[in-house]
Amino acid sequence: MTQTVITGSGLYTPPNSATNEELVAAFNKHVDLYNQKHAAEIEAGDLEALQYSSEAFIEKASGIKSRYFVDASGILDPERMIPNANEGTWVEDKTKMSQMIMAIEASEKAMEEAGLQPEDIDLIVFSSTIMQQHVPSMAITLQSILGTKGFAYDTQMACSSATFGLAQAESFIKSGMAKRALVVTAEYLSPLMNYKDRDSHFIFGDVGVATIVEREDLMKGNKGFRMVSSRLHTELSENITAYWSFVSRLTPEKIDDSYLYFKQEGRKVFKELLPMVIGLIGDHLEENDLAASDLKRMWLHQANINMNLFAAKKLLGRDPSFEEAPTVLEEYGNTGGAGCIIAFDKYHDDFKAGEKGILCSFGAGYSIGSVVVEYIKK
Amino acid sequence: MTQTVITGSGLYTPPNSATNEELVAAFNKHVDLYNQKHAAEIEAGDLEALQYSSEAFIEKASGIKSRYFVDASGILDPERMIPNANEGTWVEDKTKMSQMIMAIEASEKAMEEAGLQPEDIDLIVFSSTIMQQHVPSMAITLQSILGTKGFAYDTQMACSSATFGLAQAESFIKSGMAKRALVVTAEYLSPLMNYKDRDSHFIFGDVGVATIVEREDLMKGNKGFRMVSSRLHTELSENITAYWSFVSRLTPEKIDDSYLYFKQEGRKVFKELLPMVIGLIGDHLEENDLAASDLKRMWLHQANINMNLFAAKKLLGRDPSFEEAPTVLEEYGNTGGAGCIIAFDKYHDDFKAGEKGILCSFGAGYSIGSVVVEYIKK
Predict the structure, then answer these.
(1) What is the three-class DSSP state of A144?
(2) How many structural domains is chain A composed of?
(3) Does an H or E element contain A371, and which?
């Protein structure tokens, strides 16, 4: 059967960021304002006082020290606590649209690494948690901006957006409907968050990543990561939710309802999802006659440091080195479907022909995407 | 290579509808209210008076006589002119969610026709213009409700949602990652419309459709439509738009801005898109050594009667019979990505082994999806 190869990747990092210190300062000021405003009810025992967040709590719970945002000013404003609209929110020139800016730069870098021109590409899979524009789609708009050929479509898979996008590209190439694909995961997550929620206000950052998948016999360059085997799995959980959708138009009075935005039962996720992930990766490796120790690297989903280390340790049977399971959490935070590709983008230049690795996403849905790759050089 | 077969389809029709007469009555009352309210400005020449709609205009422009809605009461309320929220808008029991109700019934009918149980299915492609829930996804939620296996994901392609979904299912089966897929297009479009716009208030209806795609050698039944060849194409146009997205949260003051909701430059679409469609279908048939006259049926996108007849006539070189290019526009209106599957669902029982047809979508994006099928019986 046709082989497919990942021949390029690209990363876009937004220009704004927030450290734990900055985020905690804004959050705690919000807590003060809230508690002052509701002092009487709190005093009377009718309302619970909000509790401070802290840098120590955040770092212990997540390993995250900072994250990037399309807009940090609104998030860091204790009177607002959601991103401000900016010149990329509603804009006629689509190259200036916030999520598109991420997609364009990541795509251009990925094409450059693969040695491709836009017209070499005949498929764009724009695979992200959520889209800034629906009609026309993000994918077709990007196709027009870059000048790629063929077809382009949007798809969504939350934390597994990139791996599911890779598997879709692989499938379209194997079915003969495409030859070279650009897979884009532009995670513009900040407008979906609840920055007033102590348990989750620190988790996510915005980021864009892209990869190129080519039919191996048509590769323009001479090296890449052959997609040896891909496996996808989903199983419903309501422990990670963001219910907000277009029906919000029908109920504008609910626009600030915390029910609609990101919520997570972190402990349940840890307890339920990790065994599934470890089981699935273990099975997937076994099917390919591999052990975790045969892998040079695991580019794992970047959810939080404890999950990442737990998963890598269980699979290896010992503590992983940074080279075996690199993390980007400290700097980027959890970036939804993009996390494993940031790790891949930053840490893949040291591979030699025949060395293997695994890209693995896991999270909301639940969803798990696992892609075993082997470095090839012609 | 592995062959894939469409072995079932299903249709869900919402319980509420609106005739042209009802829609025009509400629209014209809205016009009266607006013109009365702004009488002074209109009189002074500072504002243009709104114009009435009419049943004759609608029928001539579109061929549509009625359409179905999740909620008609809000649309037919001249003081509101958008759907009302109802018990399916925000609901904990996901089987009662408006878009999910459509998906469940259509899916069950499709599985029944294919003779499948939910556990036979290992892939759900939930392919619709827009989703009522993002995290967890519509697809994974449906997977859990039905009890299907494997994986499930959401994808969006406006007017070509169903054909792009079919091609994705086909590709995943051909790549070996799935064996039997359920492709769901639940078009809950009414909350994205601008019912105050005379040029478009009558176009769309809500509806749900589903199809089953199986690997031919694993078919449980003994008949179906083999997917002979699929072709997808996209090319950017801003002549059909619905810009509304999750960044709306950042600008709640814009919630009623007509810029955000469905708009169409109908004449430009007719002029630009139809030649692309006719060219693409013509090429696609030629590649498969077929002429339009070799097809028993063309299940075309249901946009409006003039586009449908124009396309069918150009391809055949003569006027099509209803059997050759059936329309469902009169009753259902334009149903976005679901249209060609409604036509397929209603008109496919008379096929004999070896007879061929084409499923073709075209519209927003622009996007075109073309699937040549051949009826097989074992």
Answers:
(1) helix
(2) 2
(3) strand A367-377
Q: What is the CATH number of the domain that holds A363?
A: 3.40.47.10
Low-confidence ranges of chain B (pLDDT < 50): none
Indicate the residue of A85, A236, A246 with minimum beta-carbon distance to B144. A236
Residue contact A157–B144, C-beta within 8 A: no
Q: Which residue of A has its CA nearest to B365?
A: A136
Supply A171's token pair: 């499938």
**How many CB atoms lie under 10 A from the CB of residue A289?**
7
Give yes or no: residues A100 and A215 share one domain: yes
Residues B154, B19 share a domain: yes
Q: What digits encode the pLDDT tens for the residues A19-49? A: 999 999 999 999 999 999 999 999 999 999 9
Radius of gyration (C-alpha) of chain B in whole angstroms: 21
Mention every residue, 6+ apart, whose C-beta is less than 8 A from residue A144. Answer: B235, B236
Q: How far apart are CA B226 and CA B147, in angstroms?
A: 26
Which residue from B191, B184, B148 is spatially nearest to B169, judged by alpha carbons? B184
B322: CB partners within 8 A, 6+ apart: none
Examine the domain organization and report whether A127 and A204 are in the same domain.
Answer: yes
Contact assignment for A192 to B82 by CB distance below 8 Å: no
Q: A365–B137: do the CB atoms touch at under 8 Å?
A: yes
Largest CA distance in chain B: 74
List the domain range (segments joined by +) for residue A209.
4-222
Looking at residue B1, its pLDDT comes to 78
Report the distance separating Cα A324 and Cα A350, nearest Å: 12
- Kindly calculate the radius of gyration of chain A based on its CA atoms and give it in whole angstroms: 21
Residue B11 — φ and ψ, nearest 5°? -135, 130
Query: Model's pTM, two decimal places?
Result: 0.98
**Taking CB atoms and an 8 Å limit, are A250 and B191 in contact across chains?**
yes
H-run or E-run covering A263: strand A263-264
Q: What is the pLDDT of residue B256?
A: 87
Q: Which two tokens stand for residue B201?
A: 């208030």
Token pair of B26, please? 């509400």
Question: What is residue A101's predicted lDDT score, i.e. its pLDDT?
Answer: 98
Q: Which residues of A are annotated as catalytic?
A: 159
Low-confidence ranges of chain A (pLDDT < 50): none
A136 in reach of chain B (CB within 8 A):
yes
ipTM of the complex: 0.97
